[in-house]
Amino acid sequence: MANEPVATKNTFKRKFPLIVVEAYPWRKHGDHPKDKPVKLHDGTLTGEGLVVGFYKPKHNAYKSCPHACGKDMKDHGSVATGLVCPGDWIVTVGEDKYEHEKPTAFSDKYEAVTVEK
């Protein structure tokens, strides 16, 4: 039928206050749809994405995940809001702005919606 809502994968609404967002589960570097490889000044590409970057340890680098996800730290990423574990959700909160949510927190805050196209 012509004007029926179309189920759109990866579209969710926050339960309170109501906000519709786009979100994707993150499992490894480069799997977010907007994670294009970063190009270095010499033209070479890295495996690091524009959305979820590599976890870059500073002087207080974690030896094991502080969230106890059980994954090696090289398999982690980072966004502006912090350390991203495999399985976390990457939520688009604005134009080129992303935050991450742990799976339990994500399911407490968001539910899938159908969006009309």
Helix-and-strand structural type: mainly beta
Q: How would a textbook summarize the main sheet?
A: 5 strands, antiparallel
Strand content: 35-45%
Query: Rg from C-alpha positions?
Result: 16 Å
Distance between the termini: 13 Å
Adjacency order of strands in the biggest sheet: 9-8-2-1-10
Number of helices: 1
Name the helix and strand elements from N-terminus to C-terminus, one letter apiece.
Answer: EEEEEEEEEHE
> Average pLDDT, to the nearest integer?
81
How many domains? The number is: 1
Low-pLDDT ranges: none
Q: Which oligomerization state do the chains in this entry correspond to? A: single chain
Model description:
6% of the residues lie in helices and 35% in strands. It is mainly beta and 117 residues long. The chain has one domain. The strands form three sheets. It has a five-stranded antiparallel sheet with strand order 9-8-2-1-10. A three-stranded antiparallel sheet has the order 5-6-7, with no helix packed on it. β3 and β4 form a beta hairpin. The mean pLDDT is 81.
Give a brief outline of the structure.
With 117 residues, the chain is mostly beta strands. It contains one helix and ten strands, in the order βββββββββαβ. The strands form three sheets. It has a five-stranded antiparallel beta sheet.
